[in-house]
Amino acid sequence: MPDMGGQFVEIDLAEDVQDLLSHNADIQCNEEIKKEIFSKKPLALLKVTKTINSPLSIIAIEEVTPELLASEV
Amino acid sequence: MAKISFAERILLSSTFIKYLYTLEAKKRAEILRGLMYVNTCSVQHKKCHNVILASEHGRLEVISPSARDYWKSGMRTCEDPEFIQNAENSEVTRNIKYAVYLSDEKPYRCAILIGPGEKNKYLENSHYKYGEGRELKSIRVIEGEDASQLIISYTKQVWDSR
User: How large is the ipTM?
Assistant: First the structure.
């Protein structure tokens, strides 16, 4: 089992996450999450949960909609 | 890529964020979402266009643990540098001096966002108003709703770039 420590959350534009997936040859992300990321509009804000073990992994995403944000903050 | 050269760097104060917590959640979320867009789309200071001093951040007990990741995305917390740590024990002075420090880099201007009713404290501060009738030109102090409108106008710039 990989060590799942070093988990952190970042909020990024979907286009930046798409760019990361397209250009970082090491990043790990399952096909389902990858498909979801590429289905988002470029300016969608995504809450991206990553682990920073080697290599970097994206383990979950959630779109930060106005409604979600209003309920969380 | 949405990359915008915003006219001013943003320095947030605890009083502005506390003010946002007096508003409806929907409005607060709109402003925070705007801050996130500014931070992610800034061509000059990506992810750190909007900053807050650690000493100011320490006053933000209004931010719940579940909201921290969102705020972290909307503003970067910067440790108080030495040149303000021993300054007068005044958050107004610290914010002004830090804004001056931020104006040393592009876009060479900084807006300090503060809560309503705080503006005179800044405008009358000796670091803002210096010498005979002279005041800082690269720093703007914007309070309450006007500060919210600045963020909304910056957000509009992001959407208009498409």
Answer: 0.85
Write out pLDDT tens, residues A22-36: 999 999 999 999 999
Residues in chain B predicted with pLDDT less than 50, given as ranges, are none
pTM: 0.92
Whether B25 has its CB under 8 Å from any CB of chain A: the answer is: yes
Q: Which residues contact B11 (CB under 8 A, 6 or more apart)?
A: B50, B51, B52, B53, B95, B98, B99, B102, B110, B111, B112, B113
| Pair of tokens at residue B12 | 């947030």
CB-CB contact of B43 with B86 (8 Å):
no
* Cα B58 from chain centre: 15
**What is the helix, strand, coil percentage profile of chain B, to 5?**
45, 15, 35
Closest CA to B128 of B153, B148, B99, B102: B99
A70/B41 CB distance under 8 A: no
Question: How many whole angstroms separate alpha carbon B122 and alpha carbon B125?
Answer: 5
Domain ranges of chain B: 9-160
